[in-house]
Structure formats: C-alpha cells, structure tokens
Amino acid sequence: MKKKLLYPILTVFVIILVAGYVNAQPIIADHSVISDFDSIPDSVVNSITNSFNIYYVHTSHGSQIMTGISLVEDDNPLYEPPPFHEVSDDLGHNGDTSWVPPTRAYLDSHPECNMAMFSWCGGVSDNTEEGINIYLNKMDELEQDYPDVIFIYMTGHLDGTGPDGNLYQRNNQIRDYCTDNDKILFDFADIESYDPDGNYYPWGSDACEWCYDWCDDNPCPSCGCAHSHCFNCYQKGKTWWWMMAAISGWNAQTDLSVNMIPDNPPITVPAGGSFTYTGILTNNTDVSQITDVWVMLDVPNYGSYGPVKTYNDITLEPNQTITSMGITQYVPLYAPLGDYSYIAYCGDYPSIITDESSFPFTVTERNLSGASGWDLSDWFNTARSDNENKSAIITNYPNPFNASVNFAISLNSESSVKLEIYNLMGQKVAFLASGVIESGNHNIIWNASDLPSGIYFYKFTNDNSSITGRMSLLK
C-alpha cells in the first residue's frame, strides 16, 4: 500500500498585517519607480485598499498627492485608496514640532490607524541642518513609540534654487538619513525633477515647467493641481501607489533574480570558521538568458570588499531555476570582528546589476586555526536545475497571494517528498508535506492567513530533486 501525504494545518500566533512590516531596507519612492506602476498586480492593489488606514497631515502642496491618487482612480476604479484622515497642517519651519502632539493624540485614540504621512509647504527651503535633524528625530521617536504604525518621510517641493540652493542640501540630508536608517521616503522633489524620458531639470520649481512641454507632445490628464501642472500630481499619484505596493512586499520582477537563504540564522561565526546557505538563480522570462553572478562583502570599519568569487556567463533556459544547497563560505583568520553584509549580484559584472540579495552575519571571535582566505564553494557546478531534472516539477500560484497559495506538483515516478516554507530570515514557518507520493500530478494548498505579509520561500525535495522558489504574501 502506498503511503499518502499528510497536510498538517499550521497555526501560528503573529501580529496583524502592518505590524509585520519591518524596515529591512529603505523604500525610496522617487521618479525612477513610476515606470513600474503598470506592473503592480491587481491583488496587490486590492490588498492596499483593504489593509491600510492613513493619517495625513498636509496643506496645499501636500494635496498634490491626494489629487494624483484621485487621477489614478479615475483611470482605473480598481485603484480605490484606503481610508485617509486628512489634517490641514504641515511640517512647519526651522524645527517646528507643533505637528507632533496632535499626531500622538490621534494615534492614541485611533488604534485602527496604521500609517502616518506628513508633507512640507515650503518649510525645507529656509530650514537649517539643525531644524531638519529635529524633524528626523521626531519622526524616529514616533516610530519607536508607535511600532504598529508605518511613518512616511518626505522631501520638500522644488523652489527653483537648484543644486546651489539650501533646499537641495536639506533634501539630500533627508534622503541620506532615510537611506542610512532604512526609512520609507516619498521623494516629493525628485518626482518634480525628471520627465518620463529621464531628463533632469535641477533648476525647476514646484510649477513643473517641463510638464507643459511634455504634455504638448504627449497625452496628459486635466485637473486642478495646487501650485503646479496636473501631470505633476498624476506622477505623484502613481509614485504613491508604487510606494504602497513596495511596503506591502511587492517588487517589480526583474528578468533575472538571485536569492540566498542562510542556514540556521542569525549567523555568528568565528574567524577561521564557515557558514552555509542555499543559492538560487532564476530566469523569469520565456527566452534564454546569460548572466554573471558575483559575491561581495561589506566589512566592518572597511566597507565594500570583493568579489569573493565571480561566476561568468551562466546560461539559463526559459523559466529555469538553478538551486544549490549547502554553499560554504569560509571566513579567514584575519577577518575583522563585527557585523558584515553578505551580498550576491547577478547581471553583467561589474557595472550592470540586474538583481541582488543579501543577509547579515557576525564574526565573534578567532580560532587558533582555520581558513586562510575568503574561499567560497562552487554555486553552479553542484547546483540542480528544475528544468534539467524533470523527475519533479513544482509551481506555485497565484504569486503574490492573499492568504492561500496552491502548489502544483508533477512527479515522473513514485518518490519520497518534503515541502517546507521559510521566511526571509531562513526560519521554517510551515511543514506542509512529508511522505511517499505516487507519480502524477498533485496539489497542495497552504493557508497562510495567520502569518504577516512578506516574502517567503518554499523548499521542495524528493529522491532526485531539490527546488526552491520565492513568493509574496500580501493581505
């Protein structure tokens, strides 16, 4: 008698959706993301509509975002925004913090609110470095005191003073802080600085002079956009939706993607020791791709180091995934103690990066003997491809998914199989199947309603295959 698969029900207690967002990296919503707007899946849009409740402090300039959101909804009613509570105020000038007490009062009395946004109305142009630091510190204090609320930082609108002006310096101060501290930034000024062809207008103002020329030659919406051209508002509306999709865990899919899943995180290793991980390289297109993969380090008190190893001219067939488990990275005896970032890139080495993946590790002590260099075992010679080995094929759909995802498994022969789910930290969160299954097509449904939104990986193994894939849970 053949053994049947068992599908245990996973029950995990977690914090609700938005509290599940962790600033693992900065989210910068600027002009460069607008081209990805049309790629946002409908399921992500629905999730945003139903998952957020937003407190927004703004005056006339900040209303440009709201006008843009309305324009996007006019284009497609699917883009119905989540509830907003709008307050007529702004971030003021020169260290003004009068916006903070009303924010605290509202958040204290409205636990359903899970996002807060604040815009400037000229307050960056005449601000000082100290005044901007006061704003940044107050935002950080709010984040610490209200961990279940997502806070959106902003730059100030253009004022025509260009790269030589104070506005340029103060906006860069905000940008640097958000990038260095993994914050979420709606880059108001940057959106106004570039047309859709990527032409840069550093001396522009909030009137968006280039918008008039652009709309003379291209179709543009009509509206009342405070202080500016309607197309400026429209661009901000698209950028806002991209930002919300990124916060929800979605990212525009690249032609090629590289991923690394560390074994047994968090990783602490002595100098002279080693750690292991699973490496994944995927062709997301229907045509063959050739790429390089290289591995770098961010070394404490030193900076970027490497490449540790470069793999050149890797060929992937259409929709092929190459997966290799147990890749070993050796840590030399001379490695400085401290916190590192371990980074893999794919693209055209060294200048063109198509995708990247990283995870942290810490060197805590020194062995008396061990590795003498940053040696790395081979990723690709030992890798298995789900296209090369047809004994097992697994696909997951939909992706992104909301609560439930289907795994379709096809086996050429009877096999012992296992299906596991891991989060982005490499922690196992679900064990879906284990046992012997007969040849043919099979389906497994995973209900992840008790888990927070985010990126997850499935790991499927049988007698002859090991396949790992990435998926996004959006609620």
Strand-helix topology:
Elements: E1 27-29, H1 42-51, E2 54-58, H2 63-75, E3 84-88, H3 100-109, E4 115-118, H4 129-145, E5 150-154, H5 166-180, E6 184-186, H6 188-193, H7 209-217, H8 230-247, E7 256-262, E8 267-271, E9 274-283, E10 289-299, E11 303-316, E12 321-330, E13 338-348, E14 352-366, E15 384-385, E16 392-397, E17 404-411, E18 415-423, E19 428-437, E20 440-447, E21 454-461, E22 466-473
Helix pairs in contact: 2-8
What does this structure look like?
The protein is of the alpha/beta class and 475 residues long. The strands form 5 sheets. Strands 1-6-5-4-2-3 form a 6-stranded parallel sheet, sandwiched between helices. A 5-stranded mixed sheet has the order 8-14-13-10-11, with no helix packed on it. The protein folds into 3 domains: 19-247, 3-Layer(aba) Sandwich (Rossmann fold), CATH 3.40.50; 256-385, Immunoglobulins (Immunoglobulin-like, Sandwich); 392-473, Immunoglobulin-like. The protein is 21% helix and 35% strand. The longest helix has 18 residues, at 230-247. Helix 4 links the parallel strand 4 and strand 5 (150-154). Mean pLDDT is 86; it is low at 1-23 and 382-390. The chain has helices at residues 42-51, 63-75, 100-109, 129-145, 166-180, 188-193, 209-217, 230-247; strands at residues 27-29, 54-58, 84-88, 115-118, 150-154, 184-186, 256-262, 267-271, 274-283, 289-299, 303-316, 321-330, 338-348, 352-366, 384-385, 392-397, 404-411, 415-423, 428-437, 440-447, 454-461, 466-473.
